[in-house]
């Protein structure tokens, strides 16, 4: 196993920069894994499972920092966040078990189609997430929140990129929160999806701790600044950046699907 002193300084700097950028984007709309995970896969000798596990540990520093920042300034609805987060933990643990045995390329085409649907839905509803909608029954609201946590948590355990974006659009589109409130609640849930995956990966010995700590420090700074910017700019800014991140996710994951299909034929 390579130590930090054996990794090229240029590559280590790239990991730290990617960690900061990922923390910043994740804090606002999610999608930071799109930056962080591919950079980790450049590290010589790091397997895909090790990259995924190290990414989770590094990310949890940033998501925790941004969740605390949002909590202090936005006061997210904990009656929604906590039940969703508990089931997100369970879903993510199950997803991590699946990730250790099933190649990610099996899931990518489904994710690309889902992202296109999210983009079209958001563009078609310009007023979506501007004001908070009235709740339609506490029980229905709670069940929907639990299902969001469980399903998106499972996805995060399997793959990860775009988890925050899926959480935000589900909280805005299905539960009626504003984009700012949705981002705040998504960060709390995201902490638990990372914890769920790590509950499987750490005993497996898949985490590269020296890389994860360097990544985590950069993630913390990016997460704090991203959350502060989202709070200062409001839901309109969050929505605009959300659409940009979803577009980038569609292009990159779509290209990966096409490349996988071409190499298989």
UniProtKB/TrEMBL annotation:
Its main location: membrane. It is a multi-pass membrane protein. GO terms for cellular component: plasma membrane. InterPro entries: TM_pro_TauE-like (IPR002781), TSUP (IPR052017). It is found in: Cell membrane. Keywords: Cell membrane, Membrane, Transmembrane, Transmembrane helix, Transport. The chain crosses the membrane at residues 12-35, 81-100, 106-128, 140-158, 164-181, 188-206, 212-231, 238-258. Belongs to the 4-toluene sulfonate uptake permease (TSUP) (TC 2.A.102) family. This is Probable membrane transporter protein.
């Amino acid at each position: 196993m390579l130590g930090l002193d054996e990794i090229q300084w240029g590559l280590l700097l790239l990991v730290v920069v990617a960690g900061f950028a990922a923390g910043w984007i994740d804090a606002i709309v999610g999608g930071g894994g799109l930056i962080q995970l591919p950079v980790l896969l450049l590290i010589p000798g790091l397997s895909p499972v090790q990259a995924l596990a190290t990414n989770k540990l590094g990310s949890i520093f940033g998501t925790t920092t941004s969740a605390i920042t949002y909590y202090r300034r936005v006061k997210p609805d904990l009656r929604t966040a906590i039940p969703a987060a508990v089931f997100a933990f369970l879903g993510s643990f199950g997803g991590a078990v699946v990730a250790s045995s099933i190649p990610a390329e099996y899931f990518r085409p489904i994710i690309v189609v889902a992202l296109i649907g999210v983009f079209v839905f958001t563009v078609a509803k310009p007023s979506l997430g501007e004001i908070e909608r009235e709740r339609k029954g506490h029980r229905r609201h709670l069940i929907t929140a639990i299902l969001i946590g469980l399903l998106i948590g499972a996805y995060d355990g399997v793959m990860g990129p775009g988890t925050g974006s899926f959480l935000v659009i589900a909280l805005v589109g299905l539960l009626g929160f504003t984009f700012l409130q949705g981002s705040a609640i998504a960060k709390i849930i995201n902490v638990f999806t990372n914890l769920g995956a790590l509950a499987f990966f750490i005993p497996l010995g898949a985490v590269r701790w020296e890389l994860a700590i360097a990544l985590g420090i950069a993630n913390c700074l990016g997460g704090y600044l991203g959350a502060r910017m989202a709070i200062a700019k409001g839901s309109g800014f969050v929505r605009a950046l959300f659409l940009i991140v979803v577009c980038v996710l569609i292009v990159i994951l779509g290209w990966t699907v096409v490349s996988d299909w071409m190499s298989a034929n």
